[in-house]
Amino acid sequence: MSAVDPALTAALEQLATCDHLLVALDFDGTLAPFVDRPEDARALPEARLAVERLLEVSHTTVAFVSGRAVDSLQLASEAPAGVLLVGSHGAEYRFDGVDAHPPLDAEDADRLGALTTGFLGFSDAHPGARIERKPAGFAVHTRGLEPEAAFLAEDEARRIVADVCPDATVRDGKDVLEFSVLDATKGDAIVHLRDYTGATAVLYAGDDVTDEDAFAVLGTGDLALKTGEGPTMAPFRVGSPAEVAEVLDRLARFRAATGR
Fold first, then answer.
1. 156 and 189, same structural domain?
2. pLDDT of residue 105
3. d(CA 165, CA 179)
4. What is the C-alpha separation between 205 and 31, in angstroms, rounded?
5. What distance in Å separates the CA atoms of residue 223 and residue 201, rounded to the nearest whole number?
6. Beta carbons within 10 angstroms of residue 160's beta carbon
7. Residue 245 and residue 115: Cα distance in Å, rounded?
8. How many Å apart are CA 228 and CA 206, to the nearest integer?
9. CATH number where 88 lies
């Protein structure tokens, strides 16, 4: 299915008529192509332009929802003013420049400390694997590694977590393995965003297995859009961030045409 598929176009036209629209978007693989160094990722210019057009339409909110820590998301996305940011799969929020995230209780802080100790020296043992520290855990990035090296790094990371924090939440992604002492999901983020914004309909677009949690909480009148390959519960699919940009541009035009 392409971005010009008639069924998707019709769904966008219907979505554009809602009273308050929330457009929630994953970043890597959805707005930005994958790159070897996550810090080098940037949204496609056409995706950024489409987001800016959506922001110009009244009763329309745009949010970026990512597994990245919120500081990393802010830096990579170069988010225009007005975009709400959700990082660490719903464990961090940055709305209008104000940060909020669930506090870690004493037990969670101890578990995070154990993880921190467990991963000391990991990067030296697995050259090329990158550790990203997050407020409630870690991500092990293996993009760019040979398959065997990536397997060994992820296998060792799983062993460390099983030894020091066996009840940590584990998430598999594309060339990334994440561990958290919290169990927040992108589905939780969408529920919070809908309540915060008063949205009457939501479009969520994402490319990874963690985005399925967001798709799962969408309901009648919402629209779920999968980017790329892989199984999904989303009824619509496009092939690339360039096609996501086209979808967002069409939605912005349809939304503006309603006179909102």
1. no
2. 82
3. 9
4. 9
5. 8
6. 20
7. 38
8. 9
9. 3.40.50.1000
Specify burial of residue 94 (Cβ count, 10 A radius: 0-12, 13-18, 19+).
buried
Query: What are the φ and ψ backbone dihedral angles of 59, each rounded to 5 degrees?
Result: 55, 35
Q: Domain residues for 145? A: 106-180
- For the chain, the straight-line distance linking the first and the last C-alpha, in angstroms and rounded, comes to 29
* Domain match, 174 and 231 both: no
> If you compute the radius of gyration of the chain from its CA atoms, what whole number of angstroms results?
18
Indicate whether 199 belongs to any domain: yes
* Separation of alpha carbons 48 and 71, rounded Å: 18
Q: Which residue has the tokens 């393995």?
A: 177
Residue 42: predicted pLDDT:
96
Nearest of 113, 114, 92 to residue 103 by alpha carbon: 92
pTM: 0.85
Strand partners, 133: 138
Count Cα neighbours of 52 within 13 Å in the Cβ-side half-sphere: 11
